[in-house]
Amino acid sequence: MNNVHFTTSSSNVASPKLTAIAPRADILEGAEGFLVVLDMPGVPTEGVRVETARGELLVEGTPAQGAAGGTITYRRAFALPRTVDPSAIRADLKDGVLSVHLPRSSASQPRRIEVTSA
Prior knowledge:
The chain has strands at 2-3, 8-9, 19-21, 25-29, 33-39, 48-53, 56-61, 72-79, 90-94, 97-103. By secondary structure, the chain is an all-beta fold. The strands form two sheets. It has a five-stranded antiparallel sheet, with no helix packed on it. Strands 2, 3, 6, 7 and 8 form a five-stranded mixed sheet that branches. It is elongated, with a radius of gyration of 17 Å.
């Protein structure tokens, strides 16, 4: 897979009760689509929210109480390429690392055209 640049945004908003942090992310591109890998230490599976809205991938994770020494939320948004099939996006969390798989739509997949003799 190759590294790819996405447009990203994040909220680093501090309040007495909540701090939002943009987690470190790596974005890789392969023939099948894209892979977004985010560091989310201390976040249990039930504390993760991944959704798409208005052409963006939104990722949020809240660590278990006390896991990060305070109340924080990891929050990051990415502009989705038009070649991604939003209905086929899947995510998995293992050892504090969230992997979001963004497969290409079948219409954007390369296909070989057969050439016949006339």
